[in-house]
Write a structure and sequence with these properties.
The chain is built from 4 helices and no strands. The chain is mostly helical. It has one domain.
Length: about 110
């Protein structure tokens, strides 16, 4: 809750107990993870662009590094938005390679 709302609640309801619900905690955690993921994605894009530029100047062909799941780091970070929140269906984790790759890279 915003600080000013907390002050208003305290003045209007002095005997009330402030609580936080699971939904808002999860929402804040998801937003924080999103910010981190986007920051790393932009870093990966900038790094790849710089490497491409250096390769062009050296008259070499650029080849991006491909991870074990077939994605580049840039692709992995673009697709990784929901992999932490997906449920394991039928005992199979279809995102296991994404998890392993992103956690190793970070």
């Amino acid at each position: 809750m915003a600080a000013n709302m907390g002050l208003i609640a305290k003045k209007c309801f002095p005997n009330a107990t402030q609580v936080t619900d699971r939904f808002h905690i999860q929402k804040l955690a998801f937003q924080a993870l999103q910010e981190i993921r986007i920051k790393y994605r932009w870093q990966a894009i900038d790094k790849e662009n710089n490497t491409i530029e250096k390769a062009k100047k050296a008259n070499k062909k650029y080849k991006s590094t491909v991870l074990t799941n077939g994605d580049t780091l840039k692709q992995l970070l673009a697709r990784s938005r929901y992999f932490l929140y997906k449920k394991n269906l039928n005992g199979h984790n279809c995102e296991a390679h994404h998890e392993d790759n992103i956690l190793i890279k970070m």
